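Sample entry (237 residues):
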Amino acid sequence: MQEPVRPVSGFNLPRYLSMQPLFQEMDAIELDRLAQGCSLHRFARGEMVFRIGEPCNAFHVAVTGQVKLYVVSPAGAEKVIEIIGPGQSFAEALMFTGRPYILNAQTLADSLVLSIGKAAVVGEIERDPRFSMRMLAGISRRLHGLIHDVESYALHSGMQRVIGYLLRDQVAEDCVSGEVLTVSLPVSKATIASRLSLTPEYFSRVLHELEAAGLVRIDKREVHILNVQRLSTYQPR
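Predicted structure, serialized as tokens:
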């Protein structure tokens, strides 16, 4: 982890851990014990949480802010693997490989990041095998999401990927006809484009095409969806 980092005082680690799905079934004694192996650090926007090649001795949870997981090609092109938001964990699987980090993690906003040490996690697994099952479930959900992403990149057009991103939290059938929904882009358009395996120019071009078709209205980082049902079935000419 990059130094210097700024530890945070006055934060109730056991209470925060108790609210995370992974740790909800742990009792107070177990939570206190696990908290001894945790550290909480404050990062400014743009700081590195970790880099490729650094030892991976912990996994992490974004308490506040956002963290970008990414790799850089030999030519210098950046590919965003995932964008982590508050309450989401990352690097669990990497921690168990015994190998260094294979990607980079950088904050996209001022962030609090909780690091949970490998030794503490292994200790709880040895005490209660049910804990390992909960960790496996979390890792499996992440793997399922990554497989879904690969499938999307391989089988869907760039237009379909952008529409799918805009509608990721919406179900067309549940929306009232004529209802305008607003999607706030949580990060820059370039970052979202990389996450969708698109160039920033193509991502912007798709948004403008959707706007010209009367399906959305763009206001900086807010995309107002004018008709969810039409957008979900849109086919470019």
